[in-house]
Amino acid sequence: MANIKLSAISTRAPKDFDKQETKEKLLSILEKLDALQNLLYAESKHSILVVIQGMDASGKDGTIRNVFGKLNPQGVKVKSFKVPTAEELSHDFLWRVHAAAPAKGEIQIFNRSHYEDILVTRVHNMIDDDMARKRMKAINQFEQLLKEHNNTKILKFYLHVSPEEQQERLKERIEDPAKQWKYNENDFREAKLWDEYMKVYEDCFEYCNDIPWTIVPADQNWYKEYVIASTLLDTLKGLDMKFPGLKKEVSPKL
Amino acid sequence: MANIKLSAISTRAPKDFDKQETKEKLLSILEKLDALQNLLYAESKHSILVVIQGMDASGKDGTIRNVFGKLNPQGVKVKSFKVPTAEELSHDFLWRVHAAAPAKGEIQIFNRSHYEDILVTRVHNMIDDDMARKRMKAINQFEQLLKEHNNTKILKFYLHVSPEEQQERLKERIEDPAKQWKYNENDFREAKLWDEYMKVYEDCFEYCNDIPWTIVPADQNWYKEYVIASTLLDTLKGLDMKFPGLKKEVSPKL
After folding, report:
1. Domain residues of chain A, as ranges?
2. Domain boundaries A6-237, corresponding CATH code
3. B168 vs chain A: nearest CA distance in angstroms?
4. In whole angstroms, what is the distance from residue A49 CA to residue A106 CA?
């Protein structure tokens, strides 16, 4: 994914996608996901990590509600990464992330993630390029660890909205009483750093793509949700899972 | 540390070490350690991870009591790694280890460690050579992460006893009422696998030596304790620490 230019990638659904049809397809995918998630949990051999990144108002929360909201919460967990606490800052940046990694059988969703440590921190010059590269290397190795040593499939989604769509949505957060709780006075200030954010995202897609990113056109929620749900469906189908049958009693052993 | 042969390394103190003199030196080292640990905690810039490995009855518990027992428990923590629980087994093998990594300012002692995952597991054929290599690589990367991203100095000690000394000590566990609580019926069975254990330890010292191991002659407790305490002292002295002075009030910030 070398030299990717986000501004050259459409933020909208391809022309041949019909909104109503796609919404119906999504419903049928969600049903299949529910069954496959149950199988994933029952088999407990694989784990799934879904990383959701995107600018403010790119639709991260809505994605989680609409794509994952109907699945059994026993096997589906969401971790929102906020500004690190003092305790978290006293450890390496992956410490809190590793703690939240999925157990076998689980789908773990990251609302923001370890990628913030090479995004917001870079835009605000809290780390230099050299440290950013070191963190990227550590991130690649960490993702490899989960993949090789815990059968974790990692799906990384960037919710790609246009700056115009973002502005629309931020304004709604002021005007719509049901959205005002999401408004943060930093939002518009951060939005002015759009170009800087695009640059660090592009860099991240270039250097942290051993486990590949999916750029999801996200101006239309129905298309965004369809892309993510169908990517997850394909992933689960690809695992070749079976119900394990009657268990023998196994006691843990070194 | 290529092609190390443990059987060729002495398990006893060098001839010029006098027991009484060394014990007195240890006391003076312990006093210095106490002051430096306080400084480490106050400065909260570096962290120390002490990994203690060794065969059964090689003196791991005694080391912890006699070398670290006098330090302030507020900044010194011990984690004993036992047979993994079902929850731990549902994650990658480094998950529980990373969770126990030291915060800045702390000395964290591992009584056994992530190395068990390439030692006992190999001797009992729970993993093959290919998986062992993969785990070794992951271990090296993990230790690098702590070093580069949390200023963690890692000290790795192998308590090197002779098989004869081990047999002596295991017999004491049966005979001495104050030691019987340590006796485990597996001890003698595991001791018979001595050669297999030496082989996997030697392999570990060869492949996981990016952050180097110290082989500690451990048949005499006074010498073992002296080596570990003085290694820790040298490490702390090398950190060039200062008391940070009056703090400005800093609120965490992304």
Report:
1. 6-237
2. 3.40.50.300
3. 25
4. 8
